[in-house]
Amino acid sequence: MALAVTRPPEVAMPSPFRCSELCRAMRPSPIRELFKLTQRPGMISFAGGLPDPAIFPVQQFAACAEALASRGTVALQYGPTEGYGELVAVLQELMRGPLGRSPSAAEILVASGSQQVMDLAGRVLLDRGDIVVVEAPTYPGALHTFRNCGAGFATVPCDGDGMQVDLLPDILQQCRRTTGRLPKLIYTITNFSNPSGACLATARRQQLAEIAERWGIPVFEDDPYGELRHSGEPLPTIFSLTPWPGVLYASSFSKILAPGVRVAWVVGDATLVRAMAIAKQGVDLCTSMVSQVLVAEYCRRGHLLAHLEAIRAHYARKSALMATALRQHLPAGAASWHEPQGGFFFWLELAATDSRSLFHRAVENGVAFLPGDAFFPEPGETVVGSCDGSHFARLCFTFASGEEIDEGCRRLALSLAKS
After folding, report:
1. How high is the pLDDT of residue 283?
2. C-alpha to C-alpha distance for 380 and 14, rounded to whole angstroms
3. Is beta strand 247-252 parallel, antiparallel or unpaired with respect to 264-267?
4. H-helix segments, 133-225
5. Strand, helix or coil at 109?
6. For residue 367, what is the enclosing H or E element?
7. Looking at residue 127, what is its pLDDT?
8. d(CA 108, CA 85)
């Protein structure tokens, strides 16, 4: 039985041309639209999931441009779709710890940002009408990408230990009963999830790997924040917990170096990675060779590990500042949250107010965050599960200064008091 996903109203395209079905169904990112309201003078923004530019390694990265003198003819030329050889070698070593082994070059694909990795995975795994299992809440960029593939969604609730994996078999059964088919992909952010900040517990990771193998459903393990742990012990990747080749592990230099380099990577079964490389040939031929050469040189000089230590300490201080400010300023009982052990985000559950209404009051008071409904699929595209984020709010602690964090939480408390 074909899956009939009820789509929200299509965007009116002011064009005399006959646009594609995909174009007619496209909608602006709700986050990008909200950002327009956060650009007022004097606004303190906890909205964007942005790294702190104050901690960017500008001088060290600039010095790596010396590599262009010796490798300029390589950097300024087209490169292999799979990735620049020296960077692939860096990634093989970088992945040895998290993945439990050094992957072969055939198992690695370098991409132009994590968003492209998702897009390529969708291109090779999803057909229109397929279902993707996602956490509730989850990263809106993933929803946007898989939506563009024509997918619907099944949501799995989360708690402080991430996806409630014990509910997954029943949800898979519900999908089969409701649509006549099983989901084609399970998407999860295992470490310091965007937006919840939660880490998937080790036992749940093992359970997820077992369920995925038993049901034959690939897992997309998205891990852009795993290296940003500032307390607690690192947890094993799903990839490392199973010999089953159905796990794609993806990460990026955006959060651990700088988003402007637009360099990410994926590790997985060589056959699947090869298919993604072929799909990439029709997208951008290859990731910027200039970026790849500079990033490889930065890592070759040993800067990355030292930089990771610096940003972990930097973000640990900011996370502690936000935790203190929330406890100090927010009215008692107005919200609850788990303090993250890394990553970028606090995820507030609001006791008695709608986050969208609170957002508009907060903007009037000079502070911005992201309402929770942006992190759930829309009701018409959800075949199984809940999509209500109305009582949640995401706060990013990395971008604002220490003084802005305190003042922003005070303004947020003022907004809550008016609710």
Report:
1. 96
2. 24
3. antiparallel
4. 140-148, 168-179, 202-215
5. strand
6. strand 367-368
7. 95
8. 11
Beta-bridge partner residues of 346: 395
For 249, the token pair is 């592990």
Ramachandran area for residue 309 (φ above 0: left; ψ -120 to 50: alpha; else beta): alpha
Distance CA 218, CA 266 (A): 14
Lowest mean pLDDT among 48-62, 120-134, 354-368, 372-386: 372-386
- How many other CB atoms are there within 10 angstroms of residue 54's CB atom? 9
Rounded Cα gap, residues 157 and 47, in angstroms: 23
Say which amino acid occupies 318: K
Q: Identify which of 294, 300, 279, 343 has the alpha carbon closest to the alpha carbon of residue 111.
A: 279
At 371-405, the pLDDT tens digits run: 999 999 988 898 998 778 999 999 999 999 999 99
Which domains are assigned to the chain?
Answer: 21-57+306-417 (3.90.1150.10), 70-301 (3.40.640.10)
Query: Alpha-carbon torsion 255, 256, 257, 262, what sign?
Result: negative
> Please, which pLDDT band fits residue 90 given cuts at 50, 70 and 90?
very high
Task: Give the tokens for residue 88.
Answer: 């692939």
Cis, bond preceding 236 (omega within 30 deg of 0): no
